[in-house]
Amino acid sequence: MAGVGSAAAGARAARAAREQVSSQWRLIRIRFFRHRMAVAASVLLAVFYFGAAFAEFVAPYDPRHRSVEQQYAPPQRIRLFDDSRPAAPFVYPLISELDLETFRYTYQIDRDSPQRLALFVRGDPYELWGLFPSDLHLFGVRGGRAYLFGTDNLGRDLLSRVIYGGRVSLSIGLVGIAISFLLGIVLGGLSGYLGGAADTVIQRIVEFLRSIPTLPLWMALSVALPRFWTVEQVYFGIVVILSLVGWTDIARVVRGKFMAVREEEFITAAVVSGAGTQRILFRHLLPSFGSYLIASLTLSIPGMILGETALSFIGLGLQPPAISWGVLLQESQRIHVLAGAPWLLIPGAFVAVAVLAFNFVGDGMRDAADPYTST
After folding, report:
1. Which pLDDT value is given to residue 14?
2. Which helix (DSSP H) or strand (DSSP E) does residue 211 occupy?
3. Contact 165, 323 (CB under 8 A)
4. Residue 1: what pLDDT?
5. Could you report the per-residue pLDDT of 139-193, keeping only the tens digit for each?
6. pLDDT < 50 regions, the chain
7. Do the beta carbons of residue 209 and residue 269 sit within 8 Å?
8. Angle between helices 346-369 and 158-194 (to 10 degrees)
9. Secondary structure class of 259 (helix, strand, coil)
């Protein structure tokens, strides 16, 4: 036991010696990969963004394909046993029948015709990114349709619509935070570095924006968007609205860091050597706490996703035929529909999982960027 303990102590000492000569970014990477929840969340987000980027290929069907006889079809369970014997994954098809009293379809499981799930199945034609025509899908069933998440009121496959909706909802977080990042760095940097009148004016603007309740402000700005705008125009309008509100948090972080390091010796040396304000801001100040900015940005993305979901859910954001997680949740507002088709809340579960994943990644980045974190 003593030998094992001394070997472990020697390994820790060797690791500490290697880390003492490592660069800052290497130390951040080492600490981040020790945060298991952050790593797992990063993998999950990578899967989400892969599905969003290649939605045409990953989704089993065209998200706008309607099947009149499959309205509000319940989710089909993936089965791994056929008559108590292990089998390849399959589903039992649904037989629909119109109820003449309620004029709604009822469904029975057809256990005589199991459908095998397969990879790389030919199905609905599409154009990947509008450039590459194909009809190959990642998975599906041959000779039929399987609704793993059920269908909506028009008989459209909910799983395909959730995958396509992730393209809008997840990308809004990235595009919106990019604009907020630019505004926050420029305005927060000028406020913290110049001080004086510039700091007073910028901070009063920040305080004014932060004093307004976020949701009413989003609603007021979204109502101002013209009703005749296309889906793409409304998308970028929503991004701008979320960014105009979201830059204040980043500006506060940048201002505080600038005020903390602007009197450091390396900044004084840059000023004495004749470096301009722009060079000092972007070549000396920002790199000194870039890791903290990355952590702050990661924690800000969920706010953008939730903002788009909230606006679309209440009907002030994106509207059909656009597909986003917020748009998909619109139908769940009707209680009588939700009572008979609770699977319409599945897009909300994806929103929750994505937000939690970003929070775990942000926590991991924040801990990794902290120089006082134990390694």
Report:
1. 54
2. helix 196-211
3. yes
4. 47
5. 999 888 999 999 998 999 999 999 999 999 999 988 888 888 888 888 888 888 7
6. 1, 375
7. no
8. 30
9. helix
- pLDDT at position 375: 47
Q: Please state, in angstroms and rounded to a whole number, the distance separating the CA atoms of residues 95 and 241.
A: 46
Contact 313, 226 (CB under 8 A): no
CA distance 136 to 262: 56
Cβ burial of 34 (10 Å; 0-12, 13-18, 19+) is middle
- Other Cβ atoms within 10 Å of 255 Cβ, number: 23
Are 159 and 60 a contacting pair, CB within 8 Å? yes
Type of residue found at 324: S
pLDDT (0 to 100) of residue 24: 66
Question: Would you give the distance in Å from CA 54 to the centre of its chain?
Answer: 15
- Cis check for the bond before 75: say yes or no (omega within 30 of 0): no
Burial of 219 (0-12, 13-18, 19+ CB in 10 A): middle
Task: Give the pair of three-digit tokens for residue 250.
Answer: 């980043």
The sheet that has 115-128: what strands, in order across it? 79-82, 85-91, 115-128, 132-141
- The candidate with the shortest Cα–Cα distance to 365, out of 302, 296, 288, is 296
DSSP, res 317: S
Distance of CA 159 to the CA centre of its chain: 17
Q: Provide the 10 A C-beta neighbour count for residue 17.
A: 9
Kindly list the structural domains of the chain, giving each domain's residue range(s) and its CATH number in brackets, ordered by start: 56-160 (no CATH), 166-369 (1.10.3720.10)
Query: For residues 347 and 159, what is the distance between their CA atoms, to the nearest angstrom?
Result: 9
Q: How many angstroms from the chain centroid is the CA of residue 204?
A: 31
Say if residues 172 and 163 touch (Cβ distance below 8 Å).
no
Helix runs in 126-230, H state only: 158-194, 196-211, 214-223
Q: pTM to 2 decimals? A: 0.85
- Residue 193 Cα distances to 256, 281, 287, angstroms: 10, 8, 15
Return the pLDDT at 3.
52
